[in-house]
């Protein structure tokens, strides 16, 4: 059977080649590196209650992957860039003040990364701001991460007990700023940088107080428009955006909605006729109307929306996506509202 | 014994036959009656919605815009009635009429009771076009979502025409080519959505795949109206040929119809009409499938009657379904395609049961 | 003046299905096309109705080739009844017959005054007037075939082509249909399987085998035991009936091979 013989030679060659590649030295598994010197305030092993789970950290993590920008910016603000090995889900350019620190950290994805991409960085800790990453169809469940010895942390701004709002749960109470401060404290404890944590919180509180001093919209109405010119996504009553409104004494016209960002029809907004419009200026530029300029162009050219008072008077406050999320940028949001108030508050 | 059997068979059929008899004037009469119902439906639909608008408001706004009065109306209410609800109801009417017309042509031309406007791959192609532009961001500046959808629809239809040359030709060949094209473009849409889109985009795309009447303004009304009027005229002219196709290509040819030319011509007109409508409102299903059956049940098979009545019934159907989906889940807008499916499926089942009962 | 073919040859899918057939019926007569399956009867009918073009030879109507006729005019002159017409539609018998008026109606499909009269006359002819408002589906096989004939008659043709119209019918209905067709003043060309029916109802017959004409003429002259053996490969006897003057064909069995 000449044919069989003709196949035999290449087969033998292939097998030999395969065997040879298996004959290399084994890959080196690095020893767990010595812990970076912490402040010594945290006692390890540390057990923490986080979104309905108990997480245990044996030592300060040194290889953190942050799945969301908000979480990333907290970690960077705590000076933890040397311990970060990956970031993901960027909605806006990084804060200027953190740009240098961020530069060396690999960006795994502009959106959600794959499980493999995360594991490829060999992390020992994973943080997220939004629970959808830990849900079915997300990156991986927290259990799955735990199985490979990776502790996970979800921002308390997104959960009530073990229910994550971003992953589908419903808020029953409005978000408060304490949840954000709680997140900062938790992370600071985990990494044994509690002092830095308190310093960050103080500075945020000071900036917030300075920004809101003297602002009183006296209950004037506001609507937050995140994206989409066909079915606008607006801020519901329990969301972080609603928190911005309540802090500055604005009345959110969609306060009755319990979702964070429900979609509505334009006629609902037109008939509510808010005094001020907060417009999301989104970097992603994927949908019609993501950019601020596109939003304004739409509002002013559409025969329906152009009848709104806020459009006629051009009462727009522009905020970035990250500023509308529960993140340390809420103070930037307050600053921008302050700036608008100083210039235009008297016209209301 | 034969005579008894004949009597038994004729009994349940008589009442329906009564409608089917009579002059072609019956068709005109029903169409006119339908138009009246349509006008009333649009009027009522305009009062429905999450914002508080009364019948009096609507009347005042209409009188103002028709130049018959100058009543002061709140700017918001005026805008909601004249710039949002009225154009939306009119687009719904046009889309319903157009899709029903296409359904009639498809079912008669392809001699298949399950045929409907999307059988030629048009809606799948439109979705792919929209997704490529919306999610991948290719060519967005030039075309926009609707333009992309239209191009995608035409490409899918082109594929159908090409493929049907390789199949046996004739109606089953066209249907097979349509199935292939639909599946291909659906797969492409899914590929793009799963590979690239995040949850926000996916939701946006879903809205589009199911049809949405959000954001309809007067420019869309004009476009849809022109498409439906022109397309409807063509369908009416084709009524004679569509009748002739009842018993197949051979009989149609022997009746003097240029079969191949007529078939291709009607397929192209239907595809263009569907592509245009889908690029404006998205892929709204079930209208093109169910309305022709319902109309035939009422007035029989003659296309001179079926065509105008299908347009009117389709229009009224869409106006009401849209009004319902708008108000039942206010203020969250539900895609109108969800409504047509929820209503359409039981109606379709009822029609099937009646048909089986008769056969 | 009638539909005729002159030496037409037609190859279909690589096979020669019609081989030099010339057919010249006398106006008003009924011509039977006979032959076993595959002998080219249906193909010849397709050529006659203009559904296909022959490779050589001519098909003429009124001395003009079919290719020179406008489709509409052709449809007003030649009507076709196929073996079995099927439809999914819930169509009424009257509307089935109305289809025959298609070539007479203007393009926008409105009815002409002659329509209702032609339809009524056609229904009367096939004795389906009392069933005109029934659904076509509810009719028996024979009645459906008669409805199709009525549809053909509503075209008011001069020529009628029928492709095995009596398949699937009871003997009663077979006789009904053929008697009806034979009595019509139009020139009819019928493809038939049953030799006895052909002998009874046709004025002349054309016998085909493998696409070529084997014999043509009056049934009594053409249908001899020798011919039947040659074409159909069966042994048969032809027995004349003194009373009617017609002959009956008795089959003794297949030819020993």
UniProtKB/TrEMBL annotation, chain A:
Keyword Nucleotidyltransferase attributed: no
Signal sequence range: 1-21
Segments forming domain Fe/B12 periplasmic-binding: 63-348
Keywords: Signal
Superkingdom to which the source organism belongs: Bacteria
PANTHER family in alphabetical order: IRON(III) DICITRATE-BINDING PROTEIN, VITAMIN B12-BINDING PROTEIN
Protein name: Iron complex transport system substrate-binding protein
Organism: Microbacterium testaceum (strain StLB037)
TrEMBL record, chain B:
Keyword Transmembrane helix: yes
Keyword Transmembrane found: yes
Membrane topology qualifier: Multi-pass membrane protein
GO terms for biological process, alphabetical: siderophore-iron import into cell
Alphabetical UniProt keywords: Cell membrane, Membrane, Transmembrane, Transmembrane helix, Transport
GO cellular component, one term: plasma membrane
SUPFAM superfamilies listed in its UniProt record: ABC transporter involved in vitamin B12 uptake, BtuC
Compartments, record wording: Cell membrane
GO MF annotations, alphabetized: transmembrane transporter activity
Chief location of this protein within or outside the cell: membrane
Transmembrane segments: 26-48, 130-163, 175-197, 218-239, 264-291, 303-321, 333-353
Family: Belongs to the binding-protein-dependent transport system permease family. FecCD subfamily.
Protein name: Iron complex transport system permease protein
Taxonomy of the source species: Bacteria, Bacillati, Actinomycetota, Actinomycetes, Micrococcales
From TrEMBL, chain C:
InterPro entries associated with the record: AAA+_ATPase, ABC_transporter-like_ATP-bd, ABC_transporter-like_CS, P-loop_NTPase
Domain ABC transporter: 3-235
PROSITE patterns found in the cross-reference section: ABC_TRANSPORTER_1, ABC_TRANSPORTER_2
Keywords: ATP-binding, Nucleotide-binding, Transport
A GO MF label: ATP binding
Protein name (Swiss-Prot/TrEMBL): Iron complex transport system ATP-binding protein
Source organism per UniProt: Microbacterium testaceum (strain StLB037)
């Amino acid at each position: 059977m000449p044919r069989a013989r003709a196949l035999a030679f290449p087969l033998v060659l292939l097998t030999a080649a395969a065997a040879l590649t298996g004959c290399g030295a084994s890959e080196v598994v690095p020893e767990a590196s010595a812990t970076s010197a912490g402040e010594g305030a945290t006692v390890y092993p540390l057990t923490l209650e986080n979104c309905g789970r108990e997480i245990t950290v044996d030592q300060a993590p040194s290889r953190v992957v942050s799945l969301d920008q908000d979480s990333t910016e907290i970690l960077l603000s705590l000076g933890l860039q040397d311990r970060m090995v990956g970031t993901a889900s960027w909605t806006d350019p990084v804060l200027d003040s953190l740009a240098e620190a961020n530069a060396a950290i690999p960006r795994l994805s502009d959106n959600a990364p794959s499980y493999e991409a995360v594991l490829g960085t060999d992390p020992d800790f994973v943080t997220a701001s939004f629970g959808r990453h830990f849900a079915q169809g997300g990156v991986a469940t927290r259990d799955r991460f735990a199985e490979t010895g990776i502790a996970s942390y979800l921002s308390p701004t997104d959960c009530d007990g073990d229910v994550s709002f971003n992953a589908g749960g419903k808020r029953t109470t409005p978000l408060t700023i304490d949840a954000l401060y709680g997140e900062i404290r938790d992370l600071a404890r985990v990494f044994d940088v509690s002092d830095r944590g308190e310093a960050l919180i103080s500075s945020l509180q000071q900036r917030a107080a300075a920004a809101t001093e003297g602002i009183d919209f006296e209950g004037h109405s506001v609507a937050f428009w995140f994206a989409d010119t066909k079915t606008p996504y607006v801020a519901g009553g329990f969301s972080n955006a609603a928190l911005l409104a309540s802090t500055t004494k604005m009345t959110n016209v969609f306060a009755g909605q319990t979702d964070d960002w429900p979609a509505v029809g334009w006629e609902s907004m037109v008939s509510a006729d808010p005094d001020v419009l907060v417009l999301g200026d989104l970097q992603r530029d994927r949908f019609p109307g993501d950019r601020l300029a596109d939003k304004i162009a739409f509002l002013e050219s559409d025969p329906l929306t152009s009848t709104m008072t806020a459009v006629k008077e051009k009462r727009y406050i522009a905020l970035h996506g990250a500023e509308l999320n529960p993140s340390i940028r809420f103070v930037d949001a307050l600053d921008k509202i302050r700036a608008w108030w100083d210039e235009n508050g008297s016209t209301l | 014994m034969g005579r008894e059997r004949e009597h038994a068979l004729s009994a349940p059929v008589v009442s329906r036959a009564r409608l089917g008899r009579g002059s072609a004037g019956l068709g005109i009469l029903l169409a006119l009656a339908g138009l009246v119902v349509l006008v009333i439906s649009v009027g009522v639909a305009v009062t429905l919605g999450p914002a508080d608008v009364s019948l009096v408001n609507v009347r005042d706004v209409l009188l103002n815009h028709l130049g018959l009065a100058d009543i002061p109306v709140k700017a918001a209410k005026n805008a909601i009635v004249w710039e949002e609800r009225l154009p939306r109801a009119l687009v719904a009417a046009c889309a319903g009429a157009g899709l029903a017309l296409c359904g009639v042509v498809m079912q008669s031309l392809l001699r298949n009771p399950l045929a409907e406007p999307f059988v030629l791959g048009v809606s799948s192609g439109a979705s792919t076009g929209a997704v490529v532009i919306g999610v991948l961001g290719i060519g967005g500046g030039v075309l926009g979502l609707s333009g992309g959808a239209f191009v995608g629809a035409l490409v899918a239809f082109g594929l159908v025409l090409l493929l049907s040359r390789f199949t046996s030709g004739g109606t089953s060949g066209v249907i097979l080519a349509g199935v292939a094209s639909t599946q291909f473009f659906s797969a492409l849409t899914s590929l793009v959505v799963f590979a690239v889109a995040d949850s926000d985009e996916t939701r946006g795309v879903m809205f589009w795949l199911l049809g949405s009447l959000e954001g309809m303004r007067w420019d869309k009304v004009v476009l849809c109206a022109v498409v439906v009027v022109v397309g409807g005229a063509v369908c009416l002219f084709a009524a004679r040929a569509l009748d002739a196709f009842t018993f197949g290509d051979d009989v149609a040819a022997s009746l003097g119809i240029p079969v191949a030319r007529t078939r291709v011509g009607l397929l192209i007109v239907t595809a263009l009409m569907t592509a245009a409508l889908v690029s404006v409102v998205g892929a709204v299903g079930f209208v093109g499938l169910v309305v022709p059956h319902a109309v035939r049940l009422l007035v029989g098979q003659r296309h001179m009657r079926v065509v105008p009545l299908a347009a009117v019934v389709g229009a009224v159907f869409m106006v009401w379904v849209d009004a319902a989906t708008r108000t039942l889940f206010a203020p969250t807008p539900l895609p109108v395609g969800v409504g047509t499916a929820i209503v359409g499926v039981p109606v379709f089942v009822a029609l099937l049961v009646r048909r089986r009962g008769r056969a | 003046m009638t539909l005729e073919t002159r030496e037409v040859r037609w190859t279909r899918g690589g096979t020669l299905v019609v081989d030099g057939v010339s057919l010249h019926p006398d106006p008003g007569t009924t011509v039977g096309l006979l032959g076993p399956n595959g002998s080219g009867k249906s193909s010849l009918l397709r050529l006659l109705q203009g559904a296909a073009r022959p490779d050589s030879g001519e098909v003429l109507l009124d001395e003009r080739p079919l290719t020179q006729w406008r489709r509409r005019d052709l449809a007003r002159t030649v009507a076709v009844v196929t073996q079995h017409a099927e439809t999914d539609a819930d169509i009424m018998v009257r509307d089935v017959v109305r289809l025959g008026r298609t070539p007479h109606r203007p393009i926008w499909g409105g009815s002409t005054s002659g329509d209702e009269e032609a339809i009524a006359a056609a229904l009367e002819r096939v004795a389906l007037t009392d069933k005109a408002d029934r659904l076509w589906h509810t009719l028996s096989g024979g009645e459906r075939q008669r409805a199709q004939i009525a549809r053909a008659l509503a075209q008011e043709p001069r020529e009628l082509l029928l492709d095995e119209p009596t398949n699937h019918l009871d003997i009663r209905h077979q006789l009904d249909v053929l008697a009806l067709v034979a009595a019509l003043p139009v020139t009819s060309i019928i493809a038939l399987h049953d030799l006895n029916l052909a002998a009874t109802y046709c004025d002349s017959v054309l016998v085909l085998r493998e696409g070529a004409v084997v014999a043509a003429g009056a049934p009594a002259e053409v249908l001899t035991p020798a011919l039947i053996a040659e074409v159909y490969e069966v042994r048969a006897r032809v027995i004349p009936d003194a009373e009617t003057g017609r002959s009956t064909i008795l089959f003794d069995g297949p030819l020993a091979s």
